[in-house]
Structures are given as C-alpha cells and as structure tokens.
C-alpha cells in the first residue's frame, strides 16, 4: 500500500502548479521553486498564482511644460494645477520638465544672442531667472518650489530673495544673479529656444503641454481640466 501523501503537500501543489504539478513546456524547475522569482514564475506560467512576487516599478509619467514667466495662463496652470499635483503624488509617479521660453524669439545681433519676449523685457528676465534657478539648484525638488513662489507672487522678477529665504536658504542668490548676467544664462535660453523650436507638432500657444513626449488637443485639455486624474490614469 502506497504511503499517504499529507494533505498540506497536495494543497500546496494544487495552489502553485496547474495540472497538479505537471510542469508546462519550458519549465525546468521543481514545483516548490516555481514562485522563487519572476522569471521562474513566467517560465512555469504561474505568475497569477504567486502573490508574493515583487511587481516591477512602473515608469513615471513624463510631463513637459513649455511656458512664459509672465503669461497669465501659464502661471495659472503652474500654480493651481502642476505644483499641487506634484505635491500630492509620490515622486516616482510624475517626472516634470520646465522649459521657460514659450513664444519668445531668438535673434543674433552683431554676433551676440538677443531675445524678444511676448510680454516684454521683464518676461525675458523672468524666463532667464527661472532657467538659472534650475541650473544652480540642480535638484527638481529644490527649484520647483522656488519657481512656484516666483510665479504665485506679485512679481516674478523681484521676489527672488524672499523666495530663496523661504524655500532654499542654502542657495546663494549671487550665483543666480551671475548666471542671469553672464554667458551661462544666455546659453540656457539658447538651449530652451532650440528645444521649443524642435517641438513636433510645433507649439501654437502657451502653456504647451506634452505628456510622455506627445502633444494632442485632447491631452492638453485633460491636463488643464484634471491633471491629477490624467497622471493617475496614465501611470501603469
């Protein structure tokens, strides 16, 4: 008479192994190892029966905002939509790129770069200040609150010191000023001009929003209506 097989063993085999322990083609592992790794579970076709397997991290939603520092609609989107959404979501869900340039025009005047902005010279200054803040701070979680502070205040170009004191007291305003007044600021704006001019389809207005590298009227409308809902829908 054959020895009795414990019920617990039968239950385990039935749980992890389709066909009561019969390995499917391509599975060269014993049944007790089928849930040992994601690759093994895939080879043995038992992923759905291995609840303890770690799930791979999803790629963050990539959102790029092409904007102007003094554009009312740009400021509204950044302050009321983008910044609150960034605060609410885990860092791994949303990756934001800010490109201050918008409808500006780059010109070469006697061998030197010059920029003409839709809302005048002050906007060109604001664009460059924010580009220099990104350059000097490097870390997004440091410079985004600073840009939020500038854009939500009474003056984008005159509140730098106050915003630094609140959000990044470790950052020296002298470095930002030197960037704005020197070649670095010009190089940063030239880069933003090239990136903006390379958009496909070409931007027609600001704010211009791309999601995962794409722009459509539908994505733009969804981002402006409910950015949090859009990101949560797209995050896989």
TrEMBL record:
Looking up Pfam families in the UniProt record yields: GILT
Which example biological process does GO assign this protein?
immune system process
- ATP-binding among keywords: no
A single Gene Ontology CC annotation of this entry is: lysosome
Q: Does the keyword Disulfide bond apply?
A: yes
Q: What does this protein do?
A: Lysosomal thiol reductase that can reduce protein disulfide bonds. Facilitates the complete unfolding of proteins destined for lysosomal degradation. Plays an important role in antigen processing.
Q: What is this protein called?
A: Gamma-interferon-inducible lysosomal thiol reductase
Q: Which organism is it from?
A: Tychaedon coryphoeus (Karoo scrub-robin)
Q: Which gene encodes it?
A: Ifi30
């Amino acid at each position: 008479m054959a020895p009795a097989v414990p019920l617990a063993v039968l239950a385990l085999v039935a749980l992890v192994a389709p066909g009561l322990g019969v390995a499917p083609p391509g599975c060269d592992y014993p049944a007790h190892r089928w849930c040992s790794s994601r690759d093994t579970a895939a080879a043995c076709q038992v992923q759905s029966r291995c609840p303890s397997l770690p799930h791979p991290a999803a790629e963050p939603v990539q959102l790029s905002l092409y904007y102007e520092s003094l554009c009312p609609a740009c400021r509204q989107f950044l302050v009321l939509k983008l910044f609150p959404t960034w605060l609410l979501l885990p860092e791994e869900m949303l990756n934001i790129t800010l490109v201050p340039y918008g409808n500006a025009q780059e010109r070469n005047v006697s061998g030197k770069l010059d920029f003409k902005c839709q809302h005048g010279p002050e906007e060109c200054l604001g664009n460059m200040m924010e580009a220099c803040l990104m350059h000097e701070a490097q870390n997004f979680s440091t410079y985004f609150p600073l840009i939020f502070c500038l854009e939500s205040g009474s003056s984008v170009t005159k509140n730098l010191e106050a915003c630094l004191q609140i959000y990044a007291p470790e950052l020296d305003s002298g470095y930002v000023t030197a960037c704005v007044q020197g070649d670095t600021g010009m190089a940063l704006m030239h880069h933003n001009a090239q990136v903006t001019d390379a958009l496909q389809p070409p931007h027609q207005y600001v704010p211009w929003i791309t999601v995962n590298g794409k722009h459509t009227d539908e994505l733009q409308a969804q981002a402006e209506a409910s950015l949090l809902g859009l990101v949560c829908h797209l995050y896989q």
